[in-house]
Predict the structure.
Amino acid sequence: TQLLEQSPQFLSIQEGENLTVYCNSSSVFSSLQWYRQEPGEGPVLLVTVVTGGEVKKLKRLTFQFGDARKDSSLHITAAQPGDTGLYLCAGAPPEGNFNKFYFGSGTKLNVKP
Amino acid sequence: KAGVTQTPRYLIKTRGQQVTLSCSPISGHRSVSWYQQTPGQGLQFLFEYFSETQRNKGNFPGRFSGRQFSNSRSEMNVSTLELGDSALYLCASSSGQGGEQYFGPGTRLTVT
């Protein structure tokens, strides 16, 4: 059983569409990170959210951390083929284990031109 | 600044053998974490080393071990390989004080 559940698992959309990926847990996290991973490479960090209710924007990507710090969402506006990849969320437990991150199962996004 | 490097990138081993993977963190980073990534289980935390000491450990059998050297480089060892150990092994470096993690490209291990 994954500590962090991501949905949807797969998403195939047309260029220009909007989408939202969800990352949910029954556990509280001290911080939550979002990564994008392309085939044959390691995950690349997109953002870290720390405060409950926090919203961060990175160009067309909007990240939100839930008020209770148990869930997060990633919204992409006007998706482009370059957004294609595996999106992963990762949470750090609050008990001071700074680098013991729990990863979600990932959302595989395919943006068709 | 050079990124995280992992060697080798690809490895094929036979069941029962042992293997050692290497990770060089970003200069100045003192923490190295190891993860196993498989299609079925996703990314799972193996262990983390900080200043040559194992600071955190995941739920993997004792066949999986690691160490960190004084220059922060880390090695991971898997003994008595099983078919299920086939995976992408990723290492990530960070400052170790709750800072951001940066991943290497991974080592693709295939056990036959």
Summary: Chain A touches chain B at residues 2, 30-31, 33, 35, 40-45, 48, 88, 90, 92, 97-106 (CB under 8 Å).
